[in-house]
Amino acid sequence: MKTGFIGAGKVGCSLGKYLSNHGVKVAGYYDRDTEAASDAAQFTNTARYDTAEELAADCDVLFITVPDGLIRTTFLALAGIDPAQATTDPAQAATEAALAGKFICHCSGSLSSREVFAGIEETGAFGFSVHPLFAVSDRHKTWQELDKAFFTLEGDPARLDDMSDFLTKAGVRFQIIDPAAKTRYHLAAVYGSNLICALIGESVQLLQECGFSEEDALKAIGPLVRGNVEHALEAGPVQALTGPVERGDVTTLQKHLGVMTAEEDQQLYRLLSKKLLGLAREKHPDRDYSDLERFLQ
């Protein structure tokens, strides 16, 4: 199926390059920033389109790869739906248009296809979310790493098999999820990505309080972080668990809490340790953790 991109940012550029290198016929790009669209088209050896409508007319699959806050309004404009009417009654506002039979996709991790494409059934098109569980950081380099990424797919159940075939033929690894699970899915991604940055930040700050420079602190914890993450991903978090909670070492936890002056830091440490306690009990079902549990309460 012929594929086009509305939005020539990092995600659109990277995904377009990946798909074109994996047997998908990519028609090209439309973006209000004509320079970005031209760059993406040149990078993927495709065409730059002057309007979104021209691109839509030329394609079977459309990826709307604009910032999350603009996906809905971009879709409404493309479908010829009056935003004022769509707010109250999207079904009546939509018109049978040039989108009939087309697959309309967005790549947001937090938004579901249902909320973004409400009213799409009245246009005859089919709405989907195709999200790479990967940090797309560079418009010209990240595409080379997408073969390692896992995607999620959710959307119109009537044509879900067709979209699955499209992704499978492009070599994309993906999991189908329910649109209603999208927020839970995005929360999982935040735990696995953004919140880890907060924990690394805490570690660096504590080392700086011990006399490390920020640069040396990052170098010092690098092997520790990478080794632990790799082990957890290979063997699972239960088997990778080490440290005072796994040992049931109440004395060390008391010392840790003793050097924390901020109540919120103590609360965070206790809450995370409670989560680790669950993993520890799974790893050592015969070990008595009752003293540690009472301490964490």
Radius of gyration, Cα only, in angstroms? Answer: 24 Å
Q: Under the CATH scheme, which architecture of the largest domain would be assigned?
A: 3-Layer(aba) Sandwich
Number of strands: 8
What is the averaged pLDDT score? 94
List the uncertain runs. 90-96
Quote the CATH topology of the largest domain: Rossmann fold
Distance between the termini: 57 Å
CATH class of the largest domain: Alpha Beta
Q: What general outline do the C-alpha atoms trace?
A: elongated
What is the CATH H-level superfamily of the largest domain?
NAD(P)-binding Rossmann-like Domain
Number of domains: 3
Describe the structure.
The protein is α/β, with parallel strands linked by helices and 297 residues long. The chain has three domains: 3-188, NAD(P)-binding Rossmann-like Domain (Rossmann fold); 193-235, no CATH class; 241-297. The chain has 16 helices and eight strands. It has an eight-stranded mixed sheet, sandwiched between helices. The N and C termini lie far apart (57 Å). Residues 90-96 have low confidence and may be disordered.
Search tags:
Rossmann fold, 16 helices, 8-stranded mixed beta sheet, 297 residues
